[in-house]
């Protein structure tokens, strides 16, 4: 080893390392904040689910059952819609709603098919 050195420090005061406790404290607060946010989000989702469950049960009680029609040979969707559409409703919109309720993409129907008619 060298007995003498020409090295001179540019620092006049000794460097202090940051304390470990202050770093842990901010991490601890961050973890606590994350846990609190998680609990609040879970509580909000649970409350929303309970409210929507009660709201949907009331909707089903007030609705009357949907009417169904069995397609006879020679029937068309236009004829069925014109016989069962609500008064004052456009027949084209009613046909579209019949197709949507029954999951149909085209207007063709077959004899013996059961169609659900919207209200």
TrEMBL record:
Protein name: LysM domain-containing protein
Record-linked PROSITE patterns: LYSM
Pfam families on file: LysM
Residues annotated as domain LysM: 67-117
